[in-house]
Every structure is written in structure tokens, then in C-alpha cells.
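Morning F.,

Quick status update on the modeling queue. The single chain you submitted on Monday has been processed. Sequence for confirmation:
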Amino acid sequence: MTSSNASAPLTLTERVAEQIRKKITDGEFLPGQRLSEQALSDSLDISRNTLREVFRVLTKDGLLKHMPNRGVFVAVPGIASIIDIYRVRRLIECQALAQAYPRHPAKKRMRVAVETARACRDASDWLGVGTANMSFHMAIVELADSERLNLLFAQVLAELRLAFGLLQDPEFLHAPYVDMNQAILELVESGQFVKAAASLNDYLVHSERIVLAVYARRGGDAGLGGG
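C-alpha cells below.
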């Protein structure tokens, strides 16, 4: 991150948008869920006018959907969106991993995410496993030292969590990737970044196929539509 980014504080709208984006990424808001203006403005301690501006930002990002006379809902991604999300993930994550600085501090965040996921798995906390998995992949992107990529990828992760939320089987979805993340981490910690990137590419292709197969069986393009 550059000093110019550090010296430019977020506006209130940006801060609140980031809070709601994080709630989506953490699985607190589910696809298709209606968001109450009154309840959210009260809990976030902001005016309803500010919240409406936040809603506009997140609707433009494809995370929310405004339905006339019905309100604002968390978006439901379509199959085309999922394909695009995985294309972006392969481009960003694999490149960040292949070109990483060997002593980058984000490696420690990858380790913390893997250990957190394993602890959550032992406790059968599959939502926690999913959130730790998101943190692991965010740490991979942080290896690139690009604030723009970090912001873009935070948006991608939020959309991805919405897609995962529709599958309604977090154990099936997340359990295999705890050990896969561990294997990638071990390659990274031994300095084999190019090999780690190739393994990650295979992993993402595998993940995309599983998500699309389950999604298609559930009629993933139905519902509110999405970004």
C-alpha cells in the first residue's frame, strides 16, 4: 500500500459500504435476503439518506439489487457471473502467487487463515471454514502489493460468497479446500511460488466445476438475478 492511499481516509459512504461488503463476505447477509433500511441505519448509526447512497454503490457493484416497490435485496449471482468470477480469480491470484516476494508478510496471513480453517473444521464450524478460506485467498492477492487489486478482489470475494451461499451445503463446499490450502501454503513457505501458482490454478478450475455443477442443479439463474 502506498502512502497516498494511507493519507486518503475513506468517506462515510465508503466505510459503510465496506462494512456491508464484509458482512456479505463473512456470510452474515445471504443471497436474496431483503435489507431493512430502518434496521440497518439504526445498527450502523447512520442516516437513511447515507444508507441509500451506500445501497446505490453496492447495487452498482452487483452485490445488491433494488426492486421497485419491494425494497433492496442481496443479489443472487447468475451462472455467467460465477464463470466470470473464477476467470478473474485465476488471472489475479495465480499471477500474485507466481511473482510473490519470498519474504512478503502476507505469507503469515495465509498461515493464520489455514490454521483458523483447520480449527473451525475440527469444531464443525463450516461457515467459519468458509470465512477463513476467503481470508486465505485475500492474503494471496495481497502478495501483489496493489491496493487496486486488493479492492477489486474484496468485491470478487463478496460476490463469490453469495454464490456459495446459494449452494446451502458449506461442509461439502469448503471441507476439501482446507487441506488444499495447506498444500499451497507449504509450497509457498518452501519458496516454490511457481509450483504453488500452478497448483492454485488446478484448484480453482476444480472449484469452479463443482460450484457450477451444483448451481446448475439448483437452477442458479433463477431468482433476483445478479452482478
